[in-house]
Amino acid sequence: MKIRLIALSILFVSLHICANAQTGFSSAGGANFLGLARAGVAYSGAESIYLNQAGMTSVRNMAFDVSAERRYNLEELTQVSIAAMKTFKIGTFGLVASSFGFSEYNEQKFGLAYARPLSNTISIGGQMDMLRYNIDQIGSNNTFSFEVGLLTQINAQLTLGAHIFSPIHVNINDTDVVSTRFRLGLKYMPSNKVFLLAETDKSIDKDIELKFGIGYDPIKVLRLMAGFNTRLSSFHFGASLTLQETYKIKTSIGSSHVLGNTPAISLQYVD
Q: pTM surpassing 0.90?
């Protein structure tokens, strides 16, 4: 019980002081983006279901993802997420579920996502969310919201992404609301082996975060990642290994001098 009370204290400190935009409602995805300082609004692929659903349009047939993250290396602050996507003629549909916390404090998110291209250079996506919030001896509450995103290919090297999470006023309980979150970012590919990410992340009641990430493919099956978050002063590193062109194993870690290390792992299948 003592460790759980300590973890709960750290949770509220991290949420209200320096990481409100990273609650279980909006930070699922494990190692997919942690190695890039969670900069991914201009990214496309199966992992886009976690940050900007418009990027799901690059899934050719189907994809599955299972991810886990142990925030600040505490078992009580583990987040697990799972996602599945399937592309049809009318667009790409996805399901996502995530759980964060422990029995005394828990956040859960269940989403139904959809994305489709509007042209060769523009894609849109969105997701309907059910958000569940539970605190022991206080109670639980289910509420509903949504999120929408846009992805546009400016030219062969540059992609712009934009996303908004919970743009309407949604109450969690009598005193708390789901924080609206805006993200805008760029992805620049100077070559086939290197990409750069730059992103602004703003929750309605918090200061803006600037995130920067870089990915480098030294060989076809291996990707190395690094990132930095200016507001949290956190450094991030990761690697992704592709097996048989369809299976991916990703691992990453984020390091904060205030709150410690956060390791994560993701397993992905893309057909």
A: no
